[in-house]
Design goal:
CATH superfamily of the largest domain: Glycogen Phosphorylase B
Distance between the termini: 31 Å
Number of helices: 17
Structural class: alpha/beta
CATH topology of the largest domain: Rossmann fold
Strand content: 5-15%
Order of helices and strands: EHEHHHHHEHEHEHEEHEHEHEHEHEHHH
Largest sheet: 6 strands, parallel
Helix content: 40-55%
Shape: globular
Number of domains: 2
C-alpha cells in the first residue's frame, strides 16, 4: 500500500553548514513535517563524551549504545507518529537500535555519503555494517558500496549519485554580484588531507604558471604550507553564498578526489556545475558518465594533462563559457538535487510525496 507521509523523523548531524541540514531543508521544501534529533550535538556538549571522543571513534561507538537506546526511547512517541525515520551517517546506531526503532513502528532509511564499507576509517563504521541487514532502505553513493551493502544483507539498496542542493547552491543571477575576493583563475575549495597529494598538486600547478586560489581547512598542516600560504591560500572553508561565489567566480574549478575514500565522484562533482562553475576534475568512470568530456566538463589523468586543460580553458574564454553552461544544463537534467534524492528514498520505502514543482 502506498502511503503519503506527513511526518519524517530525522536523526543525524544538524550543523548549520552541513549537507545533512541541506537534506532536512529539502524534505521541508517538499511539504513534509520533519522532526529532528542531533545526537552529535548532545555528545559535543558533554565534557565526558568530548574527552572520550577518540575512544568512541576507535571502538566503533559500542560504548555509546546504552545512551543511544535511551535517546530513542525518549523519542518513541514521535517515531510512532512518523512515516519514516531517516538516519544520516549511522555510526552511532547498532543493530539493536535499528530494531528498537522498528519496534515503535518506524521504517528506517540509512544515508551515508562516506565509505562505511571501505578500509580508510578503521572501526568508525563498525555499527553501520553490523546494522545493515535491519535497515529498510540503505542508500549507496558508489557502485562498490551497492554490492558491499548487499553482501552485508541489506534488504533494499538504492544506488544514487551524491547531490547538490537546489537552494543552497543556486547560482547568482547576476555574476556582477560576486565579490572580487571570490574571483580567481582556478579555484579549489576543500580540505587538505594527509597522503592525498593535494598540496603537491597545488605547488606543481604554481610551478607551471597556473594561478590557484585555495579555500579550506587544515592546509596549515601541510609540509608545503609556507609556499601555499604566500601564493594560494585565501582562507578557511567557505559556506553558503560565499561557497557559491567562489565556484561561480572562478574561471575553472578543480574537483579533487579522496583515494582513501574510494571516490570516483564527490558532492563537488555536482555542486560546481549546478552553481555555475566550470568543472575540471580527474577522469573517472563516474565523471565520464555524468558529463560529456570536453563539452560539459573537462577531465585529466595526470599533471601534464591537467595543466594543458586548464591553460586551454583560460586561453579560450568563449569555449570555457560554452562548457560551463552545458555542464549547468547537464547536472540539472540528471535531477540529482537533495529534493530528488529524498523523494527517491521515500519512494523506495513505498511512500508517495506529492510535489509537482521542484526547486532549481
Amino acid at each position: 500500500m502506498v502511503m503519503r507521509p506527513e511526518q519524517i523523523f530525522y536523526i543525524g548531524p544538524l550543523g548549520i553548514h552541513t549537507t545533512s541540514l541541506q537534506r532536512v531543508n529539502a524534505m521541508r521544501r517538499l511539504g513534509l513535517q520533519v522532526k529532528t534529533l542531533d545526537p552529535y550535538a548532545m555528545l559535543a556538549r558533554s565534557s565526558v563524551h568530548r574527552l572520550l571522543g577518540a575512544v568512541h571513534y576507535r571502538s566503533g561507538y559500542r560504548l555509546l549504545q546504552p545512551l543511544m537506546r535511551a535517546l530513542l526511547a525518549e523519542q518513541a512517541a514521535e517515531i510512532r507518529r512518523s512515516a519514516a525515520v531517516w538516519i544520516e551517517s549511522g555510526e552511532l546506531f547498532g543493530a539493536t537500535c535499528i530494531q528498537q526503532i522498528q519496534s515503535y513502528g518506524g521504517r528506517v532509511i540509512l544515508f551515508n555519503h562516506d565509505d562505511p564499507t571501505g578500509g580508510r576509517d578503521g572501526r568508525h563504521f563498525d555499527l553501520v555494517r553490523q546494522a545493515m541487514p535491519f535497515y529498510d532502505v540503505a542508500i549507496a553513493v558508489r557502485q562498490e558500496s551497492e554490492s558491499e551493502y548487499q553482501a552485508l544483507g541489506a534488504r533494499c539498496v538504492l544506488r544514487t549519485w551524491r547531490s547538490y542542493d537546489e537552494v543552497a547552491h543556486r547560482p547568482f543571477d547576476d555574476v556582477g554580484e560576486i565579490p572580487e575576493t571570490y574571483r580567481s583563475d582556478v579555484a579549489f575549495v576543500g580540505t587538505w588531507i594527509p597522503g592525498e597529494g593535494r598540496d603537491v598538486l597545488a605547488c606543481e600547478l604554481l610551478d607551471r604558471g597556473i594561478a590557484l586560489a585555495i579555500w579550506g581547512e587544515r592546509w596549515d598542516r601541510s609540509p608545503l604550507w609556507a609556499r601555499l600560504k604566500a601564493s594560494s591560500w585565501r582562507g578557511t572553508g567557505l559556506f553558503g553564498r560565499d561557497y557559491v561565489a567562489a565556484m561561480q567566480g572562478a574561471k575553472v574549478c578543480l574537483g579533487l578526489l579522496s583515494k582513501g575514500n574510494r571516490d570516483l565522484h564527490t558532492t563537488r562533482s555536482l555542486e560546481i556545475p549546478y552553481a555555475g562553475g566550470l568543472f575540471c576534475a580527474q577522469r573517472t568512470r563516474d565523471h565520464i558518465t555524468l558529463y560529456k568530456e570536453g563539452e560539459e566538463a573537462v577531465f585529466w589523468d595526470n599533471l601534464d594533462e591537467c595543466v594543458r586543460q586548464i591553460q586551454w580553458l583560460l586561453d579560450e574564454p568563449l569555449v570555457a563559457d560554452r562548457i560551463r553552461i552545458a555542464g549547468m544544463k547537464r547536472v540539472r537534467a540528471w535531477g540529482v538535487g537533495n529534493e530528488n534524492l529524498t523523494l527517491k528514498a521515500f519512494e523506495a520505502l513505498g511512500l508517495s510525496v506529492k510535489k509537482t514543482v521542484l526547486s532549481g
